[in-house]
Amino acid sequence: MGRWRAFPILITAIMLAPQIVAAASKIPIPIPRPDADTTSDVHQAAPVTAANPPLFSGKKLTLEDAVFLGLRNNRTIRSAYIDRVSQKFGLRVAEDRFNPQFGINGDFARQSIAGVESTTLKVSPTVSLLTQTGAALNFAWNTSTNWQDAANGFSSAAQIGITQPLLRGAGAEINLAPVQTAQLGELVNKLRLKTTVSETIAYIIQAHRSLLTDQLQLQIAQASLDRSADLLTINNALITAGRMAPMETVQTQADIESQKLAVLQARQTLENDRLTLLDLLALDLSTKIVAVETIDPKKVNTNIAKLLPIALQERQDYLGQAYVIEQKRLGITVAKNEQLWDVSLYANARLGNQYNQGSGSERIANLTAGLKFAIPINDLSRQQQLVDADTGYQSATLQLEVLRTGVELQVRGTAAQIDLLWQQLSVAEKSRDLALQAVTVEKAKLNAGRSTTFQVRSLEGNLRDSETQLLNARIGYLNALTQLDLQLGTTLATWHIDLKD
Fold first, then answer.
1. In the prediction, which pLDDT does 112 show?
2. CA–CA separation, 474 vs 429, rounded Å?
3. Per the count of CB atoms within 10 A, which of 108, 276, 363, 488 is most buried?
4. Pairing of β 136-148 and β 153-165
5. Which helix or strand (DSSP H or E) is residue 361 part of?
6. What's the rounded Cα separation, in Å, for the pair 372 and 344?
């Protein structure tokens, strides 16, 4: 019985076949435009003729070129390197703590008192030294000359002083703490530089892909406009053949105007993103550039068991927080030492000679040694230092846990997003292919008089949407990989960038 039902349909198809062939011989069928080859230079996707000017033109700028120019020109990176000059000098100052400090003090004076005039010249070379035990050594060679009527004088004596703390400020652990803190701070500053460069590279990559997306979106909008123009050509041919009323082309003409507006909007977006990229690269804003990149994504392994250890070993903020915790631990050590009494041994000596006109030469030999102490009774400010140091250490430790959780959340979230985007990419490719086939079939049916302009326009809109979805899926997948690279802390390694600090 099913075979008999299908028989009239077969007979009808056979009867309509000659009509379709005849219609096809009278109605021009536009040649389907091939899909834009996103793996080639996008500004050469369509042939350039006088009637078909290029949608955009300029100097080719690959993603690699953009990253290189950003490393060389980007103002944020350059500013970070300028800051490094001050940071490295600060470390040099801290490490100079135990080196001898030399100086020269002097005084030259001429005075008149009660009609008596005198001239005095004093010169004192000095040396000071702090040892890792906390001992402070001071040495000065004081030389003084006095010229006065019939009373000239001269003195030259070495002055030596040494102080050795016994409680507060004593020991290598306390005195090395400022140097170790500065060294840890230098490690943190290096990590911050890496973070700045990595984030800037990610911004440049995303800006480059935004420009590339705009270019391809402009191509999609122009292709949609061309298809609408082709549909209008078909409609005019059908009207000429008497198979369509002239008023039915009004909606097609309206669609053409709407597509023209979409092209103009795409051009405006492209121009805005071009300026954004040029600003990131610190290039002349009048430069015409064309973003070039192969957007053929490859599936990436997003195994959390492998990604998370990488993030915890490479993330600059996580590693930097570990150094901050060590700094806070040293702060507790110093604060505890500040709670002790200030008890020190000291010794001073002044050895030399002095000469006064009229009394002759005299030897100088003054020696002093003793013990000095300072015992605070109710100074809460010292205890406040310990409380602040302890709470700072606990907060830094808690912040490390927060960072670890945040790193895991970011990596897991981005990895899941990458997996979903890969699935969306596959679906979007199939959707685009089917939409293109549907438009081709529907146009053939329209030529044969078995479809309507409305149906073709509807399918054309679906094709445009599916092309946009495919483009967004591809760019979104690549951007998600860039974001994962940043979250893992491996951006510099991926781009083989070795920062010269």
1. 75
2. 10
3. 488
4. antiparallel
5. strand 360-374
6. 6
pLDDT 10s digits, 209-248: 999 999 988 888 888 788 777 777 776 777 777 766 677 6
pLDDT tens-digit series, residues 156-183? 999 999 999 999 999 999 999 999 999 9
Check if the beta carbon of residue 246 is closer than 8 Å to that of residue 239.
Answer: yes
Q: What are the strands, taking DSSP E only, across 76-176?
A: 101-113, 116-130, 136-148, 153-165
Residue 248 confidence (pLDDT): 67
Under DSSP, is residue 203 helix (H, G, I), strand (E, B) or coil? helix
Helices (H) and strands (E) in the chain, counts: 10, 8
List, in order, residues 6 or more apart from 474 with CB less than 8 Å away. Answer: 38, 295, 297, 425
Closest residue by Cα to residue 414 from 327, 302, 314: 302
How far is 186 from 180, CA to CA, in rounded Å? 10
- SS3 annotation, 71-88: HHHCHHHHHHHHHHHHHH
- Which backbone phi and psi does 180 adopt, to 5 degrees? -65, -40
Q: How far, CA to CA in Å, does 260 sit from each of 150, 200, 272? A: 107, 36, 19
Q: H or E element: which one contains 25?
A: helix 2-26
Candidates 170, 70, 181, 117; CA nearest to 497 is 70
The token duo for 34 is: 């091939």
pLDDT of residue 28: 29
Q: pTM for the complete prediction?
A: 0.79
Which candidate, 228, 247, 217, 218, places its Cα nearest to that of 459? 228
Token output for 402? 């927060």
Residue 278 identity (one-letter amino acid)? L
